[in-house]
């Protein structure tokens, strides 16, 4: 479960990114985060995996109180959270296999288990035949499926996705959403920021709208609600 209470975030240059945001996300929920550029969506998501810290307010993620979390405990938080970005962020010099296995090596999983699980997630995203390819040899949609495989390889309870379809064409975006839905169906919480009106309005999940650093709308089966 994720809980934020009265979160304020002011960056070093004085920008107020979040201004008194409170929210609770239950296990296995699928949540879209919408709102204009600069509203605070990315900041909101970065707080969850401790990429940023709030200026004020409390955050609990899977029982961790992030205010009190020691630096050396951050890996324990992060192994429970998979992150997916708009620009994929695969390591260009590593093969597809190595990109995914690397996420398990950092948590010191045994070699045999790494191999088994890496091939398993490649199967899940339907790209087993690319195991020895380099990221540049894959299409954008394929690279994003690999990034998703990497995000789920350690069985996280939460996936944070910041505009994962932002660089993809509509058909490929739908493939990615099918995959996200399947991952959610297996019990993983998904929090996804998006500007894709069609996806939000078709999938009918919970929608959080953020404007000027706070939540202005929270609907159970919401719609996109903007014209762009
Ligand atoms: P969104 O994801 O909705 O576009 P962001 O969370 O990225 O919004 O940004 C919210 C506000 O904080 C914007 O005004 C943005 O310019 C600012 N901002 C984001 N990151 C930083 C940073 N590292 N330093 C200063 N300002 C930032």
TrEMBL record:
This is Cell division ATP-binding protein FtsE. Homodimer. Forms a membrane-associated complex with FtsX. The keyword Cell cycle applies. Residues 2-227 form the ABC transporter domain. The keyword ATP-binding applies. The lineage of its organism: Bacteria, Bacillati, Bacillota, Bacilli, Bacillales. It is found in: Cell membrane. It is a peripheral membrane protein. GO terms for molecular function: ATP binding; ATP hydrolysis activity; transmembrane transporter activity. Part of the ABC transporter FtsEX involved in cellular division. Its main location: membrane. Belongs to the ABC transporter superfamily. The gene is ftsE.
């Amino acid at each position: 479960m994720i809980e934020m209470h009265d979160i304020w975030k002011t960056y070093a240059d004085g920008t107020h990114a979040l201004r008194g945001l409170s929210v609770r996300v239950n296990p296995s929920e699928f949540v879209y985060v919408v709102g204009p550029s600069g509203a605070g969506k990315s900041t909101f998501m970065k707080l969850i995996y401790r990429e940023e810290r709030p200026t004020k307010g409390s955050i609990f993620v899977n029982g961790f109180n992030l205010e009190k979390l020691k630096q050396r405990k951050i890996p324990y938080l992060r192994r429970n959270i998979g992150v997916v970005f708009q620009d994929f962020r695969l390591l260009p010099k590593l093969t597809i296999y190595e990109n995914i296995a690397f996420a398990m090596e950092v948590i010191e999983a045994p070699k045999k288990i790494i191999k088994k699980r890496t091939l398993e997630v490649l199967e899940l995203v339907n790209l087993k035949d690319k195991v020895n390819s380099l990221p540049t040899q894959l299409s954008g949609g394929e690279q994003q499926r690999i990034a998703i495989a990497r995000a789920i390889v350690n069985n996280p309870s939460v996936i944070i996705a910041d505009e994962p379809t932002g660089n993809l064409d509509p058909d490929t975006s739908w493939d990615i959403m099918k995959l996200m839905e399947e991952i959610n169906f297996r019990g993983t919480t998904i929090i996804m920021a998006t500007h894709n009106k069609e996806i939000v309005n078709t999938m009918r999940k919970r929608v959080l709208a953020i404007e000027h650093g706070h939540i202005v709308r929270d609907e159970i089966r919401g719609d996109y609600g903007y014209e762009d």
